[in-house]
Write a structure and sequence with these properties.
It is built from five helices and no strands. The chain is mostly helical and 158 residues long.
């Protein structure tokens, strides 16, 4: 006679815990940052200036604006500088939001380093592009403004 076999169920593993809100947020921010970096890379490493085809149109619009009273200091260079600032604000926002509260400022530092790297690469590798310290300054300002926005958001009183 054979002994009766004991039926035991296989051991069950504990159900995985759902990711915390902060982990999910950081994952989303990482995906957004990768998408942003991809678009940024297209813009800054395009072989010719990205405004090459629209420069004439922008100059025409600026002339019309000047004729109706817009100050002359709002010129092509000003618009280009503002575009560089705006282009790097997402770098600061996404980077600072991804970092912990006490390290928010690192996103601005990273923005400055990335801007310097971009301008150096343009100077060395793209003969039709113009690397300038003004672009580094504008890009850095954009990253810093993005960091400040996140810092202000996190510091607000509820």
């Amino acid at each position: 006679k054979t002994p009766p076999t004991l039926r035991t169920s296989p051991p069950t593993l504990p159900a995985p815990k759902p990711a915390s809100r902060r982990v999910r947020q950081r994952r989303t921010l990482a995906v957004l940052f990768l998408l942003y970096i991809g678009v940024l890379a297209l813009v800054v490493f395009w072989p010719s200036p990205v405004d090459e085809g629209s420069a004439g149109t922008l100059k025409t619009i600026l002339r019309k604006l000047h004729s109706v009273g817009v100050p002359g200091w709002i010129n092509y260079g000003f618009v280009e500088t503002i575009a560089n600032v705006v282009m790097f604000v997402p770098f600061g926002v996404i980077g600072a939001a991804w970092l912990d509260r006490d390290r928010t400022w690192l996103a601005a530092v990273a923005g400055i380093a990335v801007s310097c790297t971009i301008e150096a690469a343009q100077a060395l590798l793209l003969p039709n592009r113009y690397a300038t310290i003004y672009d580094v300054t504008a890009n850095s300002l954009g990253a810093a403004l993005g960091c400040i926005a996140v810092y202000a958001w996190r510091s607000r009183r509820q």
